[in-house]
Amino acid sequence: MLPNRSRTSVLVFLLPPLLLYCAAVLFPILQSLFLSFFSWNGISDMEFVGLDNYVRMLTADDIFWRSFFNALLYLAICLVLQLGGALVVASLLTSLRRGRELIKTLYLLPAVISTVAIAFLFVRIYSIDPVGLLNQLLHWIGLGTFERAWLSDVNTVLAAVSAPEAGGSPGCTCSSSTPR
Predict the structure, then answer these.
(1) Average pLDDT, stretch 118-136?
(2) pLDDT at residue 180 tops 50
């Protein structure tokens, strides 16, 4: 058990961050939960609708389900690339006697490079005009029919945006979804 003075010190140091957390995170979550039971446009009077908003969201809202499945797909891509990459790197690091430091450096390099630089790099890789690296590789190996504007194509944009996020950073933040 902590002495009385230590307990007071702990409270003094923990109270401000806890209050800030409650004000910045918990209060907005509870307020959103409360408002979700009402029909309100922000100007007129609030009308209590109970669980109707949730029923409509789960049964009649195609955008919700599209976003939900996009988020699941994004999560799956991040997990597969991260876990697969981590297993490859771990395997390399345990089996290599020489070059271990080089592999560590190459693996951690994306964490040090600016996010903006990575974004510009992948825009160039996925580019259709001028021809980007991915489309050029597809052309060289005889799969030119698969060349496309990867970031503009509705069918490929989610995977194209997920790949650098999952493969390029040690901690994938799979919290956002890109609408199809």
Answers:
(1) 89
(2) no
Whether residue 153 contacts residue 43, with contact meaning beta carbons closer than 8 Å, is answered with no
Euclidean distance between CA atoms 13 and 22, whole angstroms:
15
Model pTM above 0.70: no
| Measured CA distances, 144 to 33, 121, 123, 127, 139 (Å) | 50, 22, 19, 14, 4
Could you tell me the two tokens for 23?
């004000």
Angle at 70 between CA 114 and CA 108, to 5 degrees: 25
- Tell me: the pLDDT tens digits for 49-90? 999 999 999 999 999 999 999 999 999 988 888 888 888 878
Q: pLDDT confidence of 168, banded at 50, 70, 90?
A: low
Paired strand residues for 39: 47
Q: Which residues contact 21 (CB under 8 A, 6 or more apart)?
A: none
What b/e string do you get for 26-63 counting C-beta neighbours within 10 Å, with b at 16 or more? eeeeeeeeeeeeeeeeeeeeeeeeeeeeeeeeeeeeee
Q: How far apart are CA 97 and CA 149, in angstroms?
A: 42
pLDDT at residue 136 tops 80: yes
Q: Where along the chain do its domains lie?
A: 4-59, 62-168
